[in-house]
Fold this protein.
Amino acid sequence: MLKEIEKNLEKANFRVTGAVTGSEGLSLIKKKKFDAIVLDVSLSDMDGWKICEEIKKPGDLSSIPLIILYLATERDKQEFHRLELEYTLDRPDDFSKLVEILRKLFPEKETLEKHEIALMIVEDDKVILDIVSSLFNLEGYKVYSALNPYRALDILKEVNFKVDLIVSDLMMPKMDGITFFLKLQENNQTKNIPFIMLTSRDQFEDIKAAYDIGIKDYLSKPFDPMDLLRKVEEILTIKQKRYYRGYESDV
């Protein structure tokens, strides 16, 4: 059932972190701030309603929307009302209804203005970095620039991961673009950020390696900055049909 839930929510562009036991789920909830929690109260290792009580205690967790999956037994109904919960789905159910609940909680936002869109440029050649950064600044975007992926990762933390698209060079010293991308994939807050790789024309093996790990968008050097601008705007247009970063909620 967990796989079915994950499939439906990820298809709807929600970021999902799954747990197969109550203890694992409770540990995750306490470590990371989620936007919503979907909880099956029929757990193998502990009473799901005890977890509900823990979440609903006064504190940081109590404000997180809690969606309960239950069998609608008499006890389930009593506990649901006792804890003053609002959202429930009977098990088994059509999990597309779960998507409907979450979309009501996190409605789609209208198209962002350019000054609300944050881009990150990672390039070890300062001349190229300055040219590309200046271009996007002139277009009205918010731009973060970094001469290496280590600085880029620091900036991401500083801005609370609120970046809408990353443009990164492939060949950089100490950490290359592929390693940088893989680092982003390790973090739920960065793994869904659109990523454009800048490559050299003769790096066919590197382009294939990038494609194999999930980098679908690239531009070969030397490139016309306007081509990069068009590619960025094309990707952002697609993204605006989904949930923007504030609405790509962690469930």
Notes: Residues 241-247 have pLDDT under 50 and may be disordered.
